[in-house]
Design brief:
By secondary structure, the chain is α+β, with helices and mostly antiparallel strands. The chain is 33% helix and 20% strand. Helix 3 runs parallel beside helix 7, helix 7 crosses helix 12 and helix 17 packs antiparallel against helix 18. It is globular, with a radius of gyration of 31 Å.
């Protein structure tokens, strides 16, 4: 099929005609003037074609590659081709958040298509060769076709991939050329033309809205830019190409299930990059994840050589490596850790019309599509040529991984049981999605020399029911990648990284350097240096817990606050009009242990509830998968709180608004939106930043400002928010958005960024010491309280011998430290166990930190979560430290803060954290809360709902959203 795109014909097809009406009835119809360079002379699809297969043009209404096909058009094309071709099968593998279907198309010879179940079974035996003989292995490899997976447009606004996918499908099923027929005989080609239908729908609609009569090749024109809800992301504005190891979204979960079912030899993933660029494909440069196999990198080089030759033949520019590193495993490249050869494409982004590049050449959209298509087909040809050897390397590596000589032979990950059932269920679900082998302990097991998440060597007892994931298994590389506490980076890479930071502030790191799933999920885990094989059984799901346990003459129901799902239970009950309380100090009623944060529904509070209270509680408990326990008595055991006391706080229904639009991070906005929808499922409003000046905040009692890309809020907006907060509102500001609120001139918050505190830095240290002392269970002053003589000396919470740096010195020091920001590292943070914001949180939680503001809190500001976990030194080590100081004062400080006696501060848990970054953030606040009039201000220094997977900090956010209006403010009295 010929595909010559002449500029005039192209322009009419894209934009139609322009009609200018005069006062008279005459009309003038204009077509665009010619533009040299829009012609793309090469045909995308060549050769003899089966006339019984509808052409793409007959389905789309335009030649494939002329403009971006919509998701509906793509789905229509697949269905029409399925009806007339015996060379393809369509599989719907998921539905997007918005309900759009996701498909992959299996393309091969009719004979191969009849045997797809056997093909998948055969590859599955190679993928886990526990009981596979060498002779059977040989027979399987000899009969297996090559299997390739071609994936396109996970970023919805990177248009050329999906259109290349359509062109590839049509050429493969319609071509009557011998080389294509041979390709189908020797391979199974799986094409996923559209991995993000919601994002592409947004993108194609935006293109249509911004199009004019004439093709526009200026990249500054709005046609080539994105609106705030860019098509790159999915419905909830997540970047799906970070989700493959996180498994949050239906789109990527569906792909993961399908990839794991097929175990393809090759996976290509077509993307786009800046419009002024050329074309990038593998191999990646350092840092490269150490869990990737050597054979994968070897074969990647061979594929790259053939792809480079194909581009040389077309006289197309390209490059490999350069900015592409391969450390973070959450991209579609996760498949490489399963043994698949993964190749990334990055085509210069051309949004239909074409782009004028710096050399004066216009690159058309059709050319971009063609490069994706040529790359795909040449990679498949390379695969077919080497398929048998690739299978041999694949099964050889799998045999090694399950053998005693496995690089992971002596390592087991143990995840300890928890009453946080929702969080554990999410973790187990993710492990099952990835197909990991899991076991449970059948009795307590003593382990020695294990490593905990703080990096300490410990010996302890694993309780019965501990989840066991042995690293010695067929998917050992991916197990290690997702669960190892630290992913190492070569010293040579770190040297270059530091050189870059010092030279110009740039970085080798493309994404986070920490992603350990147990830490991201906030579940307690150990790495054990042995292959645990005794007193374990295969994992089985726990028995389903009842939604409600009733008792005669009950006074109410309680739901354990340790469980993250309890927050949603409370939120949904309040939305249904049920008066709800929360417990701020643990107790036990009627034999039911109740942790901080436990939700209580009493019959007394709901005496006039218009409905069946028990039925509503049961329904809500079922929705949230929690158990509501009836209690018949309100007296706590011993000195523990009683039902009518001050520790049972009445909650107030949150009325929530989230600020979005230009200036707001769409990723953070989407993560918060998704967290509310998926954890609470309650109503909330999205406020457009462009319309904020006419927004009536009085409709809400909780206002969330996600992270901003720059300081978007002006004085008028700040003034409106301040007035609203003072009148009883709960303001929650996150990461980049905290700056205007903590600016001294705004007189909004007493929190400051560290660079603004050096004039009175000592007051921050004193506040820190008070926090520490307030949590101790014993004081030497207690025994002195009864003495009659005036005290001649007291213990001050600072070291009077410590020399304090001047403001100038502190600023100079901070300027240096600030250059070495955390590189997406997981760090330990300690929590105030008496604060309502930490309900459901243990004493130490993992926090993901990067280039976030460093927040400082002093008197008048509560800091429920601070960076760093105190750990007490052994007596011998402390004594040695004191003795080594001799007659000198023992000066133990970290930056501005003083360390308490016998305490060390553990910070880094996983990822790259330079010493300078560690020193700068130590003891600073991750989460602050303070009064402002009748309301409150809550600040997060980082993004608590990051990628929908940082569950420990997400719980803090949910507490703030659901409980804030009831626990932290003095709401106006409501009229009856």
């Amino acid at each position: 099929m010929s595909m010559r795109f002449h500029s005039q014909v192209l322009s009419i097809a894209l934009a139609g005609t322009l009609t200018i009406s005069s006062q008279a009835t005459a009309q003038i119809k204009l077509t665009p003037t010619e533009l040299q360079g829009l012609d793309y002379q090469k045909a995308l699809i060549n050769g003899q074609l089966d006339a019984s297969i509808p052409t793409p043009e007959s389905i789309l209404g335009f030649p494939v590659g002329q403009k971006a096909a919509t998701p509906a058009q793509i789905t229509d094309a697949l269905k029409q081709w399925q009806q007339v071709s015996d060379k393809m099968q369509i599989v719907e593998y998921a539905r997007s958040h918005a309900g759009r279907p996701l498909h992959y198309v299996v393309i091969s010879s009719p004979e191969n298509l009849k045997n797809t179940d056997r093909i998948k079974s055969d590859i599955g035996k190679l993928a886990n060769p526990k009981n596979l003989s060498m002779s059977e292995e040989k027979r399987i490899i000899n009969r297996l076709p090559a299997v390739a997976w071609l994936a396109y447009t996970i970023h919805g606004n990177e248009g050329s991939g999906s259109d290349a996918g359509l062109a590839a499908i049509y050429q493969l099923i319609a071509s009557q050329e011998k080389d294509i027929q041979d390709m189908l005989e020797k391979s199974v080609i799986i094409v996923d033309p559209l991995m993000n239908p919601d994002g592409r729908a947004r993108f194609t609609q935006e293109l249509q809205q911004r199009r004019g009569v004439a093709p526009n090749v200026d990249t500054q024109s709005t046609l080539h830019t994105d609106a705030w809800r860019a098509g790159r992301s999915n419905h909830y504005l997540f970047d799906l190409n970070r989700d493959f190891i996180l498994g949050v979204h239906p789109e990527t979960r569906g792909i993961v299930k399908s990839i794991n079912e097929w175990n393809p030899q090759l996976m290509i993933d077509a993307h786009e990059m800046g419009p002024m660029d050329s074309y990038l494909f593998g191999l990646a440069r350092e840092p490269v994840n150490k869990n990737l196999s050597a054979s994968g990198r070897k074969w990647g080089g061979i594929f790259a050589q053939d792809q480079a030759q194909a581009f040389d033949d077309q006289n197309w520019p390209y490059y490999t490596g350069e900015w592409l590193e391969n450390l973070y495993p959450g991209y579609s490249s996760y498949a490489a850790f399963r043994g698949t050869i993964h190749i990334l494409y990055e085509q210069a982004r051309i949004k239909e019309d074409g782009v004028m590049q710096p050399n004066g050449r216009i690159v058309s959209y059709a050319e971009g599509v063609d490069k994706q298509l040529v790359s795909s087909l040449v990679n498949v040809k390379t695969l077919i040529k080497h398929s048998k050897d690739i299978y041999r390397d694949f099964v050889s590596d799998k045999r090694k991984l399950i053998s005693k000589n496995s690089p992971y032979a002596d390592r087991t990950f143990a995840i300890l049981p928890s009453e946080n059932h929702q969080r554990m269920a999410k973790f187990v679900d993710l492990m099952q999605l990835q197909g990991f082998e899991m076991h449970q302990t059948t009795q307590p097991i003593a382990v020695k020399n294990a490593t905990n998440q703080l990096g300490n060597s410990v010996s302890q007892m694993l309780p019965t029911g501990t989840l066991i994931i042995r690293n010695r298994q067929a998917q050992g590389r991916l197990v290690s990648t997702m669960l190892e506490f630290d992913t190492k980076i070569d010293d040579s890479v770190l040297i270059e990284e530091r050189q870059r930071v010092l030279r110009d502030g740039s970085s080798l790191m493309y994404d986070a350097t920490a992603w350990n799933i147990t830490m991201m999920h906030g579940v307690e885990a150990l790495a054990i240096p042995s292959d645990i094989n005794d007193n374990i059984r295969p994992y089985s799901a726990p028995e389903k817990r009842p939604a409600i346990i009733k008792k005669a003459n009950s006074i109410g129901y309680v739901v354990n606050g340790t469980n993250d799902a309890s927050v949603g239970f409370a939120a949904r009950l309040m939305e249904r009009g049920v008066t709800t309380r929360i417990l701020d100090k643990e107790t036990a009623l009627d034999g039911v242990n109740m942790s901080r944060g436990t939700i209580i529904v009493s019959r007394y509070d709901n005496e006039f509830f218009a409905g069946d209270l028990d039925a509503v509680i049961e329904k809500t408990a079922q929705e949230m998968s929690v158990t509501a326990h009836a209690v018949t008595g309100g007296m706590g055991k011993g000195d523990l709180p009683d039902f009518g006391g001050e520790h049972f706080k009445v909650l107030n229904q949150p009325k929530i608004a989230i600020l979005g639009g230009p200036g707001i991070s769409s990723l953070d906005f989407g993560a918060i939106w998704h967290s509310i929808d998926s954890n609470l499922g309650i109503r909330h409003s999205h406020i457009d930043s462009n319309r904020f000046s006419i927004t009536d905040l009085r409709r809400y009692n909780t206002f969330i400002v996600p992270s901003t890309w720059y300081n978007r809020l002006g004085q008028n907006e700040l003034s409106a928010i301040k007035t609203w907060t003072k009148n009883g509102g709960t303001l929650i500001a996150i990461d980049g958005s905290v700056a205007p609120f903590v600016d001294k001139g705004a007189q909004f918050s007493r929190v400051r960024q560290i660079q603004d505190t050096f004039k009175d830095i000592a007051t921050y240290d004193v506040a820190l010491q008070k926090e520490w002392l307030a949590q101790k269970n014993g004081y030497p002053e207690v025994s002195q309280a009864w003495q009659h003589n005036a005290a001649e000396s007291v213990n001050y919470p600072w070291n009077s011998e410590t020399k304090t740096l001047s403001e100038k010195q502190l600023k100079k020091q901070d300027d240096w430290l600030a250059q070495f920001k955390p590189a997406g590292a997981l760090v330990a943070a300690r929590t105030d166990q008496k604060h309502w914001l930490t309900f459901g949180a243990p004493k130490v939680i993992p926090v993901l930190t990067a280039q976030n503001p460093v927040l400082m809190a002093k008197e008048g500001v509560q800091a429920p979560v601070r960076f760093g976990a105190y750990q007490e030194m052994e007596d011998k080590k402390w004594k040695k430290r004191v003795e080594s100081a001799a007659d000198k004062p023992l000066n133990r400080t970290i930056n501005w803060s003083t360390l308490p006696d016998k305490q060390t501060l553990t910070l880094r848990m996983s990822g790259l954290l330079w010493p300078e970054a560690s020193k700068r953030i130590a003891n600073s606040a991750y989460l602050t809360r303070e009064r402002l009039g009748r309301g409150q201000v809550i600040l997060f220094s980082g993004q608590p709902a990051f990628r929908g997977s940082t569950l420990a900090t997400n719980r803090l956010l949910l507490n703030a959203i659901v409980y804030g209006s009831g626990l932290g403010t003095h709401q106006p009295i409501k009229s009856l």
